[in-house]
Amino acid sequence: MKKFLYALIVAIGTAALLPFNIFAGSREIKILIDGAELNIPAEYGHPYYDEYERVQIPMRYIAEVCGYEVEWDAESQTADIITDKGIISVETGSKEMKTPSGTVYMDTAACVNSDGRIYIPLRYVMEAAGLEVTWKAERDCDIISISGSSALPFDKPMTPKEVSKKASPSVFYIEVKQGGNVTGSGSGFFISPDGTAVTNYHVIENTTDAVITTTDGEQYPVESVLFYDISNDIAVLKISDKAVSGTVRKEFPYLETADSDKVENGDKIYAIGSPKGLQNSITDGIISNNQRVSDNGHLYLQISAPISSGSSGGALLNEHAQVIGITTASVKDGQNLNLAVPINLVTNGLKNVNEIPYREVYETEFRRFIEGYTAELGERLWEEDTSGSLAVNYIDSGDTFIGSFERYDEIDFYEFFTPIPVYATVSGGALFDATGNKSEDDKIKASFIFTINKEVNEPYLTGEMVSDDNGNMVRIASKKYLEPGKYYIAVLQSVNDKNAWKDKNYFLYMTLEAAE
Fold first, then answer.
1. Which of 28, 50, 195, 405 is 20 to 30 Å from 424 at the Cα level?
2. 400: Cβ–Cβ under 8 A, 6 or more apart, which residues?
3. What CA–CA distance (Å, rounded) separates 424 from 144?
């Protein structure tokens, strides 16, 4: 249903105008819709007067505010603005504009400005869409009033179909890697046409590379991280404009953010993400609680919209397809007890951008981890995964594992990855009661072997048998230098007696320290 737009008032001032501005002094810039102020965020551009004294305005923002879709052809530098009157086509640099009524010849042209965004002549395009445009000079600003028939997204709630259609192109699937190997996936979304995007920190944690896949199937590398907050589980990314295929993208579709502090219990919401890798799945629900505080003291939006593994980093939207949160987690063993990080934490964090290369985040946090407190032997205790013959355990600095051999020829593998050069110390041996005392005879102790391998079956370093402080025989590889990469610790036994290790356990303990 169309709704009458009584007034779309654009107040163009000179304070933030681009170099073509012909007016002097500081003038306020405002956009009013039915008397309500609508500010164009700085990252989307600013209206300005061009050399012909025509008002140019960011194309995508004003078109979407008016409820119109925009299709951009980078090759021809042409934008199609799909209005309720038909398609309006403008080409950058051209003074001809194709409209449903025919070709209009303008005294100015759409352009790509110094900020890299597409700008269009406001009056020509709005009048071509059937809207009435009037201009009035005030003391501190120039008022351009636009009125007519339009269906603005904030005039009425959007249907689920409309929300999906508007938001989906801005939401992507992200695949993360560690040393070239895919280790996980999640979701993310653009909040700016320049490739600024949002996901959860835990999606990119402990990874060296990431690639996103947009709804058109193109893949783009993640170049850098603009801001991250581990405690609030936020990561703001910068996506390369050059696809893996070589295609260069002028701008990305993006989502507008809303004020998450104004969200109320019972509000209708939508979640879009890639649960289980099913790209751009949409679910709906309500805000169950807008002030849910977790056990660790962090504030979340509790939502009823279903989300699953892989939804992390997805967009939580209001009824106008505006982002109000990042879908983050589910309460285990609960039904539709799901959590989202309020988007205001992102907008506030972007005030302190410190861009760093993507890989450097992992390096920084890894170094901080291994240079911090190191758990002593047996303090951070894990049991070997015995779910299958090919099971691989993942071991971190400070971890102690308890394992056993079900067969005399069994080899257990423990994998770790280091993004920086390190000195590794690994110790292991026969075990063991809860106090760490070892009671096997020396023959059994000496039969315990481990190697540090670059590949599963390529031994790189091995440990030596020594006597520990309690006089027990253990095998130790002390402060072995390792380049960045993935390694496997292979644990096995070497005794003729096939029953020597039956019903006996071993321990394996590793610590890492930075080599730089």
1. 405
2. 375, 377, 378, 379, 380, 381, 382, 507, 508, 509
3. 68
pLDDT at 21 over 70: no
For residue 366, the surrounding DSSP H or E stretch is helix 358-371
The encoded tokens of residue 296 equal 């660790």
The residues that bridge with 430 in the sheet, in sequence order, are 506
Q: Are 131 and 63 in contact (CB under 8 A)?
A: no
Report the chain's terminal Cα–Cα distance, integer Å: 65
pLDDT in tens, 342-360: 999 999 888 888 899 999 9
**What fold characterizes domain 3-150?**
Copper Amine Oxidase; Chain A, domain 1 (3.30.457)
**What is the Cα–Cα distance from 181 to 338, expressed in whole angstroms?**
30
Which residue type, as a one-letter code, is found at position 127?
E
Say which DSSP state 110 is in.
-
- pLDDT, residue 141, reads 76
Pick the CATH number of 157-369 from 3.30.70.3040, 2.40.50.100, 2.40.10.120, 3.30.1250.10: 2.40.10.120
Amino acid sitting at position 456: V
Calpha distance 352→350 (Å, rounded): 5
Instruction: Report d(CA 476, CA 418) in Å as an integer.
Output: 20
Give the pLDDT confidence of 443-494 residue by residue, as tens digits.
Answer: 666 678 888 988 766 777 777 877 766 667 788 999 999 999 999 999 888 7
Question: Bridge partners of 9?
Answer: 32, 145
Q: Which residues contact 496 (CB under 8 A, 6 or more apart)?
A: none
Q: Which two tokens stand for residue 31?
A: 């956009």
Contact 296, 319 (CB under 8 A): no
Query: Strand 181-190 and strand 171-178: pairing?
Result: antiparallel
d(CA 21, CA 233): 42
For residue 506, give the H/E element and its range: strand 505-514
The answer to whether the beta carbons of residues 255 and 190 sit under 8 Å apart is yes
What is residue 498's predicted lDDT score, i.e. its pLDDT?
Answer: 67
Side chain identity at 323, as an amino acid letter? Answer: V
Structure-token pair, residue 375: 């758990």
Q: Are 59 and 70 in contact (CB under 8 A)?
A: yes
The amino acid that residue 410 corresponds to is E
